Amino acid sequence: MKISFRAAASALAFGVAAISVSASAAKDPAPTAAEADRFVAQAEKELFDLSIPTAQVAWVNSTYITDDTDALNTLFGAKNTEAAVRLAKEAAKYDKVSGLSADTRRKLDILRQGIVLPAPATDGAATELNALSTRMSSIYGKGRGTLDGKEINGSDIEEKMGTVRNADQLKEMWASWHDNVGTPMKADYARMVQIANQGAKELGYKDLGAMWRSNYDMSPEEFARLTDKLWLQVKPLYDQLHCYTRTKLNEKYGDKVQPKSGPIRADLLGNMWAQEWGNIYDVVAPKGAGEIGYDTTELLNAKGYDPLRMVKQGEGFFSSLGFEPMPETFWKRSQFVKPADREVICHASAWDVDNKDDLRIKMCIKVNGDDFTTIHHELGHNYYQRAYNKQSFLYLNGANDGFHEAIGDAIALSMTPEYLVQIGLLDPAKVPSADKDTGLLLRQAMDKVAFLPFGLLIDKWRWSVFNGTVKPAQYNDAWNALRLQYQGITPPVERGADAFDPGAKYHVPASTPYTRYFLARILQFQFYKAACDTAGWKGPLHRCSFYGNKEVGAKLNAMLEMGMSKPWPDALEAFTGSREMDGTAMIAYFQPLMTWLEEQNKGKTCGW
């Protein structure tokens, strides 16, 4: 996850954002193109100056949660975001001006379209919206579940969901987390939607969802159709993975816990939200073919890695491509491990505090393979942020938000066995042979492919909430209906009328648009294939590593430097040669696995 604090376009992307619309000015003479240019320049300066102290306060609030830091974050968030929507409303005055340069037109659109949570002109609306957002984020950050009746914090419960194999303990952790974290924020969330929707309408949008979808260089309707098209491209692969995984869970837990047909019980998939299934690879790995020959967590521990060394190694990948090392302040100011003496938000994120080189990551790193991958992901944000830091303020962002999420993941795809050998983690004699490819691909698919429907449904749920199709009383039923429709999963326990399971996922109370992660899953394979093509790779796509290839680094940097200065198809074309997002690179990567899964699933009743 990326935190850029580019106030106008992201409006505090971490979700603690609310904006108050100022009263309409008296009717002025028709504005000119020159006036629009001056307005944009002034707006960029104002937002730049506001963004830095706002980011600093937000950092303190995320890494030291108290009532006081909550209050400060609310105060600075309101000030910053009030300016953002005032400028958004003023930007709309220049919408019909003739003779605008392409640069000014783009910046005006960014000012108007990029706000996450706008508040209406009503007195006190901005402050209330910030208070609601901050309170929900704090509920999440302080959240606790239970294991064997004993309290367990958010970071630890996530880890336990991936390692525990006792169905009753998994059910307890799942239910306690969703009840303790999600349920208390339901009323706040409903009120937040009410306020932010009114703010979106005052800015000329049908609702908040339409406003979010407007930020992709196409209409909201075109964007929704694009996401549906991408999903249909990759859905057959997900369906086969679901069918195979369900069979293996049935073999382990039996019919009473996991039936042979129908949906999968959500808590059995190794992740609190069933969004990635890689943690249960040991359950689903086929005999023989499933033995990939190494475990990254074991390798890291055997070599004595600690959290800092894991981050240093992640930096080393980017250095091998020709990127400059992280600045010294990165190592001094980042949060790498969970402090023992205070409450923090452990959810991993990458920060660009001063819009230049005060780059940081915030994690509670555990020495395991998942966090090693996450480090590469977060560093991808940081290197992107630094690459475009010479752009003007409104362009300090990815070509679209899916790009930002995809960069580090494309790097992580290159963390092949050969890469692990190159950095001294894996013995060359233990590199899996070609007959282990099924295991390698299945392990990847348990995360990459399993995530796809989850990445899509969170915003589909929110879009329905924002447009009024789903009312507060229907929040949880609608959530679980989408989880069943897209993921084919079901809760392990009955959910009560007061339940608010969406709130138990960080990005919902934090108001972080989520379709970016779905797009990133598609884009990372396009980026990865483009990098492998540039590197001249000739073997199976999934075995390609471009570690150490300076040509790939130079071409990648050329795209990153563009930031948001051009429409995303221009940026995509600069690196991949294509102007279309599509799932064909992902399908090509997993094609050997797809063939194998279809064979394993013969005679099974797939679907749910």
Specify the number of helices. 23
Gross morphology = globular
Strand fraction equals: under 5%
Number of strands: 7
Report, as a whole number of angstroms, the end-to-end distance: 32 Å
Structural class: mainly alpha
Widest β-sheet, arrangement of strands: 1-5-6
Taken in chain order, the helices and strands follow as: EHHHHHEEHHHHHEHHHHEEHHHHHEHHHH
Multimerization state: single chain
Radius of gyration (CA) equals 23 Å
Low-confidence stretches: 4-26
Mean pLDDT: 92
* Helix content bin: 55-70%
Describe the biggest sheet?
3 strands, mixed
Signal peptide: 1-25
Pfam families: Peptidase_M2
Keywords: Disulfide bond, Glycoprotein, Metal-binding, Signal, Zinc
Binding site for Zn(2+) 1: 377, 381, 405
Fill in the keyword field for this structure.
single chain, 56% helix, mainly alpha, two-stranded antiparallel sheet, globular, 3-stranded mixed beta sheet, 7 strands, 23 helices, 608 residues
Report on the architecture of this protein.
- Among the domains are: 33-115; 296-440 and 541-574, no CATH class.
- 56% of the residues lie in helices and 4% in strands.
- The chain has 23 helices and seven strands.
- The strands form three sheets. Strands 1-5-6 form a three-stranded mixed beta sheet, sandwiched between helices. Strands 2-3 form a two-stranded antiparallel sheet.
- The protein is globular, with a radius of gyration of 23 Å.
- Mean pLDDT is 92; it is low at 4-26.
Quick structural gist:
With 608 residues, this protein is mainly alpha-helical.
